What we know:
The chain is about 45% helix and about 25% strand. Strands 2-1-6-5-4-3 form a 6-stranded antiparallel β-sheet, sandwiched between helices. Strands 9-8-7-12-11-10 form a 6-stranded antiparallel β-sheet, with helices on both faces. It has helices at about 30-35, 40-45, 65-70, 110-165, 170-185, 220-230, 280-310, 315-370, 380-410, 420-430, 435, 455-475, 530-540, and strands at about 15-20, 25-30, 50, 75-85, 90-100, 100-110, 185-195, 200-205, 215, 235-240, 250-260, 265-275, 420, 440-445, 455, 480-490, 490-500, 540-550, 550-560. It has 4 domains: about 5-110, PAS domain (Beta-Lactamase, 2-Layer Sandwich), CATH 3.30.450; about 160-310, Beta-Lactamase (2-Layer Sandwich), CATH 3.30.450; about 335-395; about 410-560, Heat Shock Protein 90, CATH 3.30.565.10. Strand 16 and strand 17 (about 490-500) form a beta hairpin.
Amino acid sequence: MSVADFSLYNNFFTPVLILDGTGKIAFKNIQFTKIFGGIKNLEKFSKYFSFDICVLDSEDILLSNPINYAIDSKENFCASTVYQKTETPLYFQLCAFYSGDYKVLTFKNITTELLYEEVEKRYSFIRQQYLNLVEENKHFASLQQQAQAQTVKLGLLHRISSVVRESIDLNKIIDSALKELFNLFGAIKVYYAAAEGNSYVIQHAYPSKYKTSEKITAELPADTRRSILSKEIKVEVCIKDFLNSKDTYPSQVNRIVIPVTRMHDILGILIIFTNQKIFDESQNDVLQSIASQLASAIVQASLFLQLKQKNDELENTLKELKETQLQLINSEKMASLGQLVAGVAHEINTPLASINANNEILEKLLKKLPENPQFADYERIFSNIKNINVIDKEAIKRISQIVLSLKKFVRLDEADLQFADINSELDLTLELIKHETKNKIKITKNYSNIPPVKCYPNMLNQVFMNILMNACQSMPDGGEITITTEFSGSNLFVKIKDTGTGIDEKIKDKLFLAGTTTKQIGIGTGLGLAISKKIVEKHNGNISFVSKKDKGTEFVIQIPAEK
């Protein structure tokens, strides 16, 4: 067979190599030459091929390449091979068969198919990951929705509970509850109707434009009355407030009826008119809770009125208790500020007294100063005036420093993150509490050469103030406070150690909880360390302490800080 007889293979898109009976190259089609080039040495060409699996049954592993197997095979041969002469390996399906006395080798490029399979696998994996993330997001969204609903519920109940605790005015309590329900449901109007026999008389309405002095009896559908008797919340569509109402709505609205019950008695009903169409379980819980709170308030108000009739003095007693409660609350709120202001006032008062005394002396001396400079007492009076001037300057300097320290400490205009020198901030705080430490407590500073760090300096100053004031108050007879600053890696460390009385074991576990305090009422709020912990956490940091009874306490503040 001549070379011309193989020209048909030039129409193939697959590379074709034909060998004669002696194993020499008899023909290469155009596609073969295009991919592999014009090879002449078949042995050298075969070394660029290998199986995509490991061949273990070969006598000579070095000669175990697919080309040799294809040539030596007495039968049709097919194998997946790797061609590694190119920069990126190519994958071919090598097939060999006899055509007369000639051996025909075809090389089908399956690189794209393999890559497609790999991409398909990766796509399937990524798609599954995506579907997993979608499910997780749905789960998180559900949790977020539940958390938001719970937050709304707790906030609403807290506000109503606060009104119930702080007020004995039933009208105020009911009006407050109606307002909260109005806002929660985006309502058109909200009523409270008290039970009178088998009827319900509207006593309260929100907004106030729906209030009326007339006695209106609510006539509800029979199934609604059955729901009230069974103490269930009823949601129904209506175009009127009640069966006997003269007014109608432009379109249908939802009417929600909530029984207000105490034990086996129905005290009244709450009625909400709203365009909202969907109601979830959390809103049902809110309505049940508000109805329960309102029932408690109504019973309490009723008991109060009965007791008031029996004892007129009870009103004055309750009033005094209420005033005392407010005073205690205000005392706690102002305790920390009051201590600071008292100390600052003392610091300012001393130099002011000095200036005032000096001015009086100066006034007397000026009266004695004659016009004649040769007067015998001139030099002495002049010297006294000069000394007074120096003292006044120092006193004014002290006042200015105290005022400047207060302004820096407050920093109401510096609520954003900024770079600050923590050593300077500690000095600023120490300046403000100097009245607590002066002549009584030794301050030892172990400041490291730390760079400015990005933080909320006014907030950190509050942390330093709380810890330092607690340290001072734990050493009523004096002691020592050691302040250490250092920068390790990317963390700022501030350590404040005192030689005070230490922290009681009973409160160590709840030291950072709001309300925990060992001080007397009016002195401590129990909020200092709780607020300090929140501030440190706002900086993504941590605050801890080590304390021993009668040996002192050391607080360690660690903040990841950007230099």
